[in-house]
Amino acid sequence: MENEVYAFALKNTLQEIQNACPDVTSNFIFKDGKIIAKNKNTDKETATQTMEAFDAIAERADPIGDLENITIQSTEGKINIAAMEDFYLTTVSSKEADEKYVNTLTRILIPIVIKLSEKIQPATLDNETITTEPEPEPEEDDAYKPPEENFDLNENKPENNETEEMDQPEEEPAMPEPEPAEEPEQYEPEIDDEPLLPDPPVTQLIVENLGGLLVPSDTVRVDQEVISRWNELFGDNKIKEVEVEALNGKTTRCKFKNIKKSKDTGKGIVKMPEKIQLTLETQQGELVTIKPIIE
Amino acid sequence: MAKKKSAQESATPIFVDEDEIAAPEEEDQTFKDLNEKLAKIRKNRGVIGYILRNTTSATIDLKEPEKIVEYAIFSSQVLDSSQEISNLLETGDVENVLIEGKDNKVLCMKIDGNKISIFMEKDADDTDIQKQISP
User: Fold this and answer.
1) Average pLDDT, stretch B81-85?
2) Do the interacting molecules here have an ipTM over 0.90?
3) Tell me: domain B25-133, CATH 3.30.450.30, correct?
4) C-alpha to C-alpha distance for A14 and A106, rounded to whole angstroms
5) Distance (Å, rounded) from C-alpha A260 to C-alpha A136?
6) Cβ-based contacts of B90 with chain A (< 8 Å)
7) Which of B78, B88, B102 sits opposite A57 (nearest CB)?
8) pTM of the predicted model, to two decimals?
9) I need a labelling partner for B80 at 20 to 30 A (CA). Which of A24, A177, A242, B54 fits?
10) CATH architecture of the domain formed by A2-119
11) Taking residues A211-235, what's their average pLDDT?
12) Do residues B109 and B133 lie in contact, with contact meaning Cβ atoms separated by under 8 Å?
């Protein structure tokens, strides 16, 4: 599960590296015998076999100590396998590639993304004491409750609001949107008199099923700790909805409430009705990112 | 069946494969030339030692003779696995491989059927050494 946290960010980063440097023909990252992320051009089987060949070298590397870097210069290209934190980045480039440029790009970007990914892991949620507002819902989350006053429940709003995400100009640097903006005309002009707000924090959570006869299908349940942090950050700015993004890049906006069951709090989960899971093409046990929509 | 030996002043052991057929004369000459170059490189600051081998002969000169087998196996593994990786990733025949470890690094090359591994300290100038050994 830990590896999935990195996979999402690293996959996009690898693709961006290739976009920035077309001489990079293939790249992938592995750790502990598993392929963590790869770009589109890389075949998984090839990557796995490469990793195994690398391991064969690493096993016999006693004369030089733990492997840090391998550069293979071949007749038709160059291969570099570099240790980064606990990960190994493999970069395949043409002979014409500017080695310095590629190295600068990869050896700066990848460690940054790894560090940022570590920070947004659910396990690393701050332990600081956060004053939480009393919740009007005393019962467990499966039971239907009328909408809370601070949540604007627009019942007729469509579930799949993928185009509405274009209204959110702010993005986290570590988690670039995998789908580039296709309809830039939908961006709304910026309003100058708006007070400066911090970027909406992106929280990575694990999907858990939320079922029941009276459970609203357009509302996810989020840890109170996360909601409290949003409230602290944005104060009077009402947060009525959240944007949920699955690992496959699908996004949707939906309403949210806090998780009521004490046994589910602090576990880094988001409880999600089946309808939203279908929209996002995700399922229980998978990771999604959630950020608040600031009105 | 010809039996070939490579002699070099500071070389420690010599591996000989008696079953191999004698190398062509030009290959033998390349081996000798490389041996001479490597003997000079061996004196460079930071160079720990080297292994030179072809199908019939080998010369090994290392600071730690008791670890010769370990170095030889590693050297062989590097060239074999590197070629395997290169085949998988479709980059053609391996010309040279630089492997950096926590303590030392090794430069492996293939020149006219001769396989060379030069072990050096991390701060040694591998680019300069590569220039010296290249034809």
Assistant:
1) 95
2) no
3) yes
4) 8
5) 10
6) 76-77
7) B78
8) 0.56
9) A24
10) 2-Layer Sandwich (3.30)
11) 83
12) yes
